[in-house]
Amino acid sequence: SYLLHPPLLEEQGLVFAIRWFAEGFTKRNNIPVVLDLPDGGVRLEPEIETALFRIVQEALGNIYRHAGATKAWIT
Length: 75
Description:
Elements: H1 7-12, H2 14-29, E1 33-35, H3 46-67, E2 72-74
Parallel strand pairs: 1-2
Helix pairs in contact: 2-3
């Protein structure tokens, strides 16, 4: 349940949470994730940040399970 709504998302924002999740994804799955994200100064509505975070989670999970990729990008 921690990964469904990590406290970092609420405390630090979407960009920070995506960076944190991508780093952990790389460590767990040995698939580097290249990030092209803003510095993170702008915050969105909490519901939107949660939805976007879950989209990133699902997309990286699909890359791991189905793509056979050696690298992933988040822009």
